Amino acid sequence: MIRVLIVDDHTVVRQGLRFLLQQEADIEVVGEAADGNEAIEAVREQVPAVVLLDLLMPNTDGLSALRVIKRISPATQVVILTSHQGDDQLFEAIKAGAISYVLKAAGVEAVVGSVRAAARGESVLDPSVAAKLLHEMRRRRDRDPVDQLSPREVDVLTALARGHSNKEIAQDLSIGEETVKTHVSNILSKLHLADRTQAAIYGLQQRLVPLDDALE
User: Fold this and answer.
1) E-assigned strands of the chain?
2) How many helices (H) and strands (E) does the chain have?
3) Global pTM value
4) 100-103 and 27-33: which strand pairing?
5) Span 76-86, pLDDT tens digits
6) I need a surface site. Which of 25, 30, 50, 129 has the fewest CB within 10 A?
7) Residue 44 above 90 pLDDT?
8) Last residue of a domain, one of 108, 141, 174
9) What distance in Å separates the CA atoms of residue 29 and residue 1, rounded to the nearest whole number?
10) Neighbours of 209 (CB within 10 A)
């Protein structure tokens, strides 16, 4: 039996899904939840094989709940079942660990099929969703790498390009040296650089500071 938890803030939707899924001989609905908080508690108690998870819900939303669910129960597969097609939430849900992303308008067969596929560890994406995901992946691949940095990380990278030490950066930005070290580590990771020297050179290449300033 495939143990399923249904998470949606609309009672009618939950009841409808329960009725439909319970017609299947190999699926057992072990619980329902109306928001992300209830979903997290239900996963802790029931440890379902599959969670059907809506995204737009009150209190804790589906995306936030997804991240917690995958942390507390890695074996539980999460199928996003939503009417929302936004590129950002789609990409973030897949990145957070959702195995499938199915639109509510797709119909009963698509929902049941996604549950069975998830239980086998297989992904299901609505064709329109797959196209959006591919577009978003290409967009993120092609954007300027500096765009991946937070504003504070850009400040630190600029300071590195000026040749400043961690102590000087901490003083200039009014933050602790350990915080500077954390920012530098994040910068190296995000930009795939080996050390702070490469980061300084990269900052100069990106013209974060004029070369004359760096040589002062």
Assistant:
1) 2-7, 27-33, 50-53, 77-82, 100-103
2) 11, 5
3) 0.64
4) unpaired
5) 999 999 886 66
6) 25
7) yes
8) 141
9) 10
10) 19
